[in-house]
Specification:
9 strands, Rossmann fold, 21% helix, 190 residues
Length: 190
């Protein structure tokens, strides 16, 4: 990979951990821009865009939804946590607030499709979670493949069937996701 990745920072404390993981795996320093960027069309200058985790809900995250709208079908997209939720919402899915909060916990993920970002990952893997909202499984339309769920059936990863768009509810850059580097490497190659 030669071209820089745009890392859209949703004002999250993990953004630079994600930056370092992307740089380590790709060998190219990502360009970081905050979600309040004055001209969201700058995202179209990149072939690859990563939407960081962040606080709150997608519709409250600056110009996050506008960036997704501009890049949809034109750019390779990866959304992590808040970015994942925003991608799902853009395609019509709904979010639901959890009865319990996942802030800094490790959950077991179950791989449903190993021909994806989970290539060479064990069927059961550790996923670092920091969220209180989740994508409602039955609100996803049929243009999505669910790649992974947790032990309660909550969605951990989705992939669009026809477009290079992936969402992951967990944090690959967290120490609680030991195979996060391999997951990001698989996504970059996928």
């Amino acid at each position: 990979m030669n071209q820089p990745i745009l890392l859209l920072d949703n004002f999250d404390s993990f953004t630079y951990n994600l930056y370092h993981l992307l740089y380590t795996v790709s060998g190219v320093k990502p360009v970081v821009m905050r979600n309040d960027l004055p001209n969201p069309k700058v995202a179209l200058e990149f072939e690859t865009v990563v939407l960081s985790p962040g606080p709150g809900l997608p519709q409250e995250a600056g110009k996050l939804m506008e960036v997704i709208d501009l890049c949809w079908g034109k750019t390779k997209l990866l959304g992590g946590c808040l970015g994942h939720q925003a991608i799902a919402m853009h395609s019509g899915a709904s979010l639901e607030q959890l009865n319990y909060v996942h802030h800094g916990i490790s959950r077991k993920g179950k791989v449903l499709n190993s021909d994806s970002i989970f290539h060479s990952i064990e069927n059961s893997f550790d996923a670092g979670s920091y969220h209180s909202w989740t994508v409602q499984k039955d609100s996803l339309n049929d243009s999505w493949n669910i790649l992974s769920v947790d032990t309660q059936g909550e969605i951990l990863a989705i992939e669009h069937k026809n477009l290079p768009i992936t969402g992951i509810q967990f944090h690959p850059e967290s120490v609680l996701t030991p195979q996060g580097g391999l997951i990001i490497e698989n996504w970059l190659k996928h």
